């Protein structure tokens, strides 16, 4: 391509980027007005949006951590597609919003360095907006010096380098993406962040600062049916009296109030839960810092019907008071 043609192509790309910037600004203003109106009318706009469909577009500077961000979103339960041309996002969103779809959160890593992709992105954003699907743009950035070091460490050329200097490719990409960055809902500078810290930033950006980044699953089981192999922690509640030997409680489970009161009113149960709650909070905090986002706690008793079930429910209640996301299940109750 001649220098003149390259200049024309670059000018076209910048014009497309400018169009997107203006369109994003208009949409942002309109969306803000709509959200303010809905919030005044219903008082719960955030909850309403959280219960619907959501699309996250992941973009930004090459080498700033787009792939790592995609992995973090996948850990958070998003359906993630990497290196997707913007035009292909439309059928995916249509499928997501169709009846019976189990995908409610779709994230796509979008590369918009060519003019055609800029135009496609403009059309995609307009189409998704017509569907009433909440869309957010996540932009990953980093300083030029950090990007240079990252590229040198992996010994790969920048996509826009074209045989020239690395810094020229970085500067060209930064200029082309500047308008898209202005449209972003979440901007994360990864210059000084580790992979773990990037994940934490994403959790804070999506869930709010102070929200737990660790999902906890607690399930009860019976030792006589085998110890689960996928648990991070195994708790043995067989040190408590067994409700099975109380005729009035034998046919009930730990979900019943009579059994729960019998188990949890024992001073030993209270003392254990008080101390174990503190230990778990310390461990879960450490897991979050080490980028481990799922913790499984198995609570066992002899048959998995009474003590373990009641303890699991109570432990979950306590952990939720600390803002943790906790789910509970009972492995052995299906055996009844």
UniProtKB/TrEMBL annotation:
<feature type="domain" description="RapZ-like N-terminal">
    <location>
        <begin position="54"/>
        <end position="209"/>
    </location>
</feature>
<keyword id="KW-0342">GTP-binding</keyword>
<dbReference type="GO" id="GO:0005525">
    <property type="term" value="F:GTP binding"/>
</dbReference>
<dbReference type="InterPro" id="IPR027417">
    <property type="entry name" value="P-loop_NTPase"/>
</dbReference>
<dbReference type="InterPro" id="IPR005337">
    <property type="entry name" value="RapZ-like"/>
</dbReference>
<feature type="domain" description="RapZ C-terminal">
    <location>
        <begin position="215"/>
        <end position="333"/>
    </location>
</feature>
<dbReference type="InterPro" id="IPR053931">
    <property type="entry name" value="RapZ_C"/>
</dbReference>
<feature type="compositionally biased region" description="Polar residues">
    <location>
        <begin position="12"/>
        <end position="34"/>
    </location>
</feature>
<keyword id="KW-0067">ATP-binding</keyword>
<dbReference type="Pfam" id="PF22740">
    <property type="entry name" value="PapZ_C"/>
</dbReference>
<protein>
    <submittedName>
        <fullName>Uncharacterized protein</fullName>
    </submittedName>
</protein>
<dbReference type="GO" id="GO:0005524">
    <property type="term" value="F:ATP binding"/>
</dbReference>
<keyword id="KW-0547">Nucleotide-binding</keyword>
<feature type="binding site">
    <location>
        <begin position="60"/>
        <end position="67"/>
    </location>
    <ligand>
        <name>ATP</name>
    </ligand>
</feature>
<feature type="region of interest" description="Disordered">
    <location>
        <begin position="1"/>
        <end position="34"/>
    </location>
</feature>
<dbReference type="InterPro" id="IPR053930">
    <property type="entry name" value="RapZ-like_N"/>
</dbReference>
<dbReference type="Pfam" id="PF03668">
    <property type="entry name" value="RapZ-like_N"/>
</dbReference>
<feature type="binding site">
    <location>
        <begin position="111"/>
        <end position="114"/>
    </location>
    <ligand>
        <name>GTP</name>
    </ligand>
</feature>
């Amino acid at each position: 391509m001649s220098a003149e043609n390259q200049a024309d192509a670059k000018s076209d790309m910048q014009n497309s980027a400018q169009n997107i910037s203006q369109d994003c600004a208009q949409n942002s203003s309109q969306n803000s007005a709509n959200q303010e109106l809905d919030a005044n009318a219903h008082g719960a706009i955030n909850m309403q949006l959280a219960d619907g469909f959501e699309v996250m577009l992941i973009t930004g500077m090459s080498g700033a951590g787009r792939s790592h961000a995609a992995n973090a979103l996948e850990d958070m339960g998003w359906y993630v597609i990497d290196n997707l041309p913007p035009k292909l996002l439309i059928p995916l969103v249509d499928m997501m919003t169709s009846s019976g779809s189990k995908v409610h959160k779709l994230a796509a890593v979008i590369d918009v360095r060519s003019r055609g992709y800029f135009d496609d992105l403009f059309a995609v954003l307009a189409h998704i907006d017509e569907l009433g699907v909440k869309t957010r743009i996540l932009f990953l950035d980093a300083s030029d010096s950090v990007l240079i070091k990252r590229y040198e460490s992996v010994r790969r050329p920048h996509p826009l380098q074209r045989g020239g200097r690395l810094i020229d490719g970085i500067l060209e990409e930064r200029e082309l993406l500047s308008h898209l960055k202005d449209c972003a809902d979440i901007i994360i500078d990864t210059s000084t962040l580790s992979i773990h810290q990037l994940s934490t930033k994403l959790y804070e950006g999506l869930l709010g600062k102070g929200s737990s980044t660790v999902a906890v699953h607690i399930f009860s089981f019976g030792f006589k049916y085998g110890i689960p192999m996928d648990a991070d922690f195994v708790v043995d509640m067989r040190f408590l009296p067994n409700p099975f030997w109380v005729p009035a409680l034998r046919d009930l489970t730990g979900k019943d109030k009579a059994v729960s009161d019998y188990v949890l009113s024992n001073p030993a149960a209270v003392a254990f839960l008080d101390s174990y709650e503190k230990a778990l909070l310390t461990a879960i905090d450490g897991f979050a810092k080490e980028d481990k986002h799922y913790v499984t706690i198995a609570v066992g008793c002899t048959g998995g019907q009474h003590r373990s079930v009641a303890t699991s429910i109570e432990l979950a209640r306590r952990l939720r008071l600390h803002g943790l996301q906790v789910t509970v299940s009972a492995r052995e109750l299906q055996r009844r």
